[in-house]
Write a structure and sequence with these properties.
mainly alpha, Rossmann fold, 2 domains, 3-stranded parallel beta sheet, 7 helices, 3 strands, binds iron/sulfur cluster, NAD, NADH_UQ_OxRdtase_20Kd_su, quinone, metal-binding, quinone binding
Length: 175
């Protein structure tokens, strides 16, 4: 007895009319746009802070007064494996730098970084100290910088909106 393992769908894939119709309907280009639309409106930041900016700016932005949840960015994840945005909020010391890098590397792609506050951008008031890294971009790629010591919670929200625009328009590097 001869076994016929071919599925009826295989026969359809040999029909040039069907193949051309599928090619007409399915376009890969817009798929990336749809994914970026979803990514830009549902970022999952990592719950992770290094110093005062984490409380003053990041926790303030997620609290009830400023309510980052309005934009769909409130799902702070306790694990880097479930996060796509690292918000570096606070002073990066040379001792904590390896952990910052490790957490970043543990995040799945695509991933983005927001540097919140003077310390995360440039070392801040401690830049001359022997133990402070002069900015997160010395360790990992940074997409958005939010200046201030500490920045206002509104500035953090604005940083997320800048990142949203960058995800929606990948060729735009400044906003
Ligand atoms: S920028 Fe200012 S508020 Fe933020 S971590 Fe540094 S010293 Fe603290």
């Amino acid at each position: 007895m001869e076994l016929n393992n071919s599925h009826p769908i295989e026969e359809l894939t040999k029909d040039p009319v069907i193949v051309n119709e599928v090619r007409r309907l399915v376009q890969i280009g817009p798929l990336e746009k749809i994914l970026n639309l979803a990514r830009a409106h549902s970022m999952w930041p990592m719950a992770f802070g290094l110093a005062c900016c984490a409380i003053e700016a990041l926790m303030g932005a997620t609290g009830p007064r400023y309510d980052l949840a309005r934009f769909g960015y409130e799902v702070l994840r306790p694990s880097p494996r479930q996060a796509d945005v690292m918000v570096v909020a606070g002073t990066i010391t040379r001792k904590s730098a390896p952990f910052v890098v490790r957490l970043y590397e543990q995040m799945p792609d695509p991933k983005w970084v927001i540097a919140v506050g003077s310390c995360a951008i440039s070392g801040g008031p401690f830049v001359d100290s022997y133990y402070v890294v002069p900015g997160a971009d010395k360790l990992i790629p940074v997409d958005v910088y939010v200046p201030g010591c500490p920045p206002r919670p509104e500035a953090v929200i604005d940083g997320f909106i800048m990142l949203k625009n960058k995800i929606l328009n990948p060729k735009v590097v400044t906003s």
